[in-house]
Write a structure and sequence with these properties.
The protein has 214 residues and is α+β, with helices and mostly antiparallel strands. The protein is 22% helix and 32% strand. The protein has 2 domains: 3-74, no CATH class; 89-212, Umud Fragment, subunit A, CATH 2.10.109. The chain has helices at 3-23, 30-37, 41-49, 56-65; strands at 89-99, 102-112, 124-128, 143-147, 156-162, 167-175, 179-183, 190-194, 198-208. A 9-stranded mixed sheet has the order 2-1-3-4-9-5-6-7-8, with no helix packed on it. Strand 7 and strand 8 form a beta hairpin. The longest helix has 21 residues, at 3-23. The chain is elongated and about 85 Å long. 21% of the residues are buried.
Length: 214
């Protein structure tokens, strides 16, 4: 293979690597890729869109900066790269009790792999119970993992977001066309909420004692 052919092969393979990184949906465009890997966008644009040579040293440096396998830009077959998925971070909230069991949520952190046995999805978040307002059903320090997209199920726990800005942890009894029938966790009180008074409801998919959080 002539030097010109090698330069062109490296250019084509570099373009395919950039395309694969964009297809992974972790980057919107080549500029974001360059910013992430500490490359000059102008330099990469020149390599891709001109006849500027990609020499041996430049090729190896590009592979290193892009975390690619050595010599992958010199291969005749199209390069295939493995893009590690972005770790999902779960937002953590803490109850700020306003009155009895009604509370507002305060964001306190965002973490990865908080619950080892639960596969996190972007729609998951966790609320830390504070105070004794839900005792004995829920103890202070426990975490409630909620799912913004899960389907509501009767006789299951849920976080109700009221239109007045407050939240409640309740057991959903049933749902009709225009209302929700709920009860307190200790089953001492049953209430019907009009859907007009409820902004949203997110099911609780896990209750986790603090010692199980990694």
């Amino acid at each position: 293979m002539s030097a010109t052919e090698i330069f062109e092969l490296r250019r084509n393979n570099l373009a395919k690597v950039i395309d694969q990184l964009i297809d992974s949906q972790q980057f919107k465009n080549g500029k974001e890729i360059c910013e992430h890997f500490g490359l000059s966008a102008a330099y990469i644009t020149q390599l891709l869109n001109s006849k500027r040579q990609i020499g041996e040293k430049a090729a190896r440096e590009l592979e290193q900066q892009l975390s690619l396998e050595s010599l992958i830009l010199d291969r005749a077959e199209a390069p295939v790269i493995e893009v590690a998925p972005n770790p999902v971070k779960m937002t953590l909230f803490q109850m700020q009790v306003v009155e009895q069991q009604a509370f507002k949520m305060k964001a306190i952190d965002a973490v990865e792999n908080l619950v080892p046995w639960l596969k996190l999805e972007p729609q998951h978040y966790a609320i830390q119970v504070t105070g004794q307002y839900y005792f004995p059903s829920l103890k202070a320090g426990w975490w409630l993992v909620c799912d913004e997209q899960a389907v509501l199920q009767s006789s299951s726990l849920a976080c109700v977001y009221l239109s007045n800005g407050l939240q409640l942890i309740v057991e959903l009894i049933s749902e009709s066309q225009d209302s929700y029938q709920i009860q307190s966790l200790d089953e001492s009180r049953k209430v019907s909420f009009q859907k007009a008074d409820v902004a949203k409801i997110h099911p609780v998919i896990a209750i986790v004692p603090p010692q199980q959080f990694s």
